[in-house]
């Protein structure tokens, strides 16, 4: 969510863009029934997971592009771009902690495979770094 919020704010320069990007940043995990978003929409999440699996379609460039293009007429270009970049920020984070089918439907998975401990370390480092960036951004203008 933090990386999506930062991406959304970067392209819109407004709080609304940060909120949209932050929400978009959790959408890719809709394909994982145990995720926060997946638990909120279990029917969609379970169905999506059974259909395509985790870190496939919803973690792809295709999905990010479709989401942005679909929402553009309803929320406008800057906010649709915040959605696209929020999703891509999530995908970029997942590339640091595992394999992702970012070129879906191409079955090739790319990313860095890490142990559970490596995942926890990377997750904490990225979170702390994003919080520092956001706080610095708030206080510098």
From TrEMBL:
TM ranges: 6-30, 51-72, 117-139
The keyword Metal-binding is assigned to this record: no
Signal peptide: none
Keywords: Membrane, Transmembrane, Transmembrane helix
PANTHER family the UniProt entry points to: INNER MEMBRANE PROTEIN YBCI-RELATED
Name used for this protein in its record: Inner membrane protein
Source species: Planifilum fimeticola
């Amino acid at each position: 969510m933090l990386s999506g919020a930062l991406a959304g704010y970067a392209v819109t320069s407004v709080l609304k863009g940060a909120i949209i990007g932050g929400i978009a940043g959790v959408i890719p995990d809709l394909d994982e029934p145990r995720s926060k978003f997946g638990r909120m929409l279990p029917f969609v999440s379970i169905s999506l997971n059974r259909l395509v699996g985790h870190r496939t379609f919803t973690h792809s460039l295709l999905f990010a592009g479709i989401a942005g293009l679909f929402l553009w007429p309803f929320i406008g270009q800057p906010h649709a771009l915040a959605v696209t970049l929020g999703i891509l920020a999530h995908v970029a984070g997942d590339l640091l902690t595992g394999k992702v089918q970012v070129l879906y439907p191409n079955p090739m998975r790319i990313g860095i495979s890490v142990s559970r401990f490596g995942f926890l370390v990377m997750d904490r480092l990225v979170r702390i770094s994003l919080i520092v960036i956001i706080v610095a951004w708030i206080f510098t203008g």
